[in-house]
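seq as requested:
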Amino acid sequence: MRGMFTAGVLDVFMENGIGFDGAIGVSAGATFGCNFKSRQMGRAIRYNKRFAHEWQYCSVRSLLFTGDLYGADFCYNRIPNELDVFDLAEYRANPMEFYCVASDCVTGKPVYKKLETCDVHDLTWMRASASMPLASRVVEIDGYALLDGGMTDSVPLPYFESIGYGRNVVILTQPREYRKKPSPLMPLMKLALRKYPALVEAMRRRPEEYNKQTSYVFDKADRGEVLVICPETSLGISRTEHDKNELQRVYEEGRRIAMTRLEEIRSFLRG
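struct tokens:
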């Protein structure tokens, strides 16, 4: 739910006519970021607050009954198709390209997918991107067995540069000084993911790789080649926050920082 910060930033972009040729999202960055392409201001914070206490949306009960902490059918079918309808027509009409990142359980490598229509197939890729280990079933699609993209490429700036995007705004949900440490859940992950040793190894290396990625991003930002938007301090919100006030607080923090840097963002994009 640190992704509420990103949702706030993106809503400010939309309100102020700031657009891009392409975007790439990882995990919550994909599931919330797709609303930027569909131009649905306020949708991410709205439905997260509305369903914060629904067991089908996110709960241990959902994990026990469905195998997913975030209910797959509720989140990727009922919400976009019935309860807070996703604007497929606008998504498809918007020429901005949108990608997500998922982790290949077999190889332990990231997989990048362009989401062109946001149909059921694309939504399954999006679900894979956000399927946290230990809290989700492995998502099988297109011959892959997939889990959360953040396990293998949390900050996919090098990939985006490699496909031709040379002037990038990077939204992070941790402050600049944050350094990832080894997870205390690694022994449990090793047991739960024992069928996928390459993914377990990727998770073991994740703190080192993540810290390298953020150093790369901020080094480029210091040279004026990238613009980074991130919280000033830790957002202090859990991954599965249910408190509507906390969701709103983090969303408003994203809005505040984006608003204070609006002219800087416009100047950067003008080049």
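The two ends are 32 Å apart (CA to CA).
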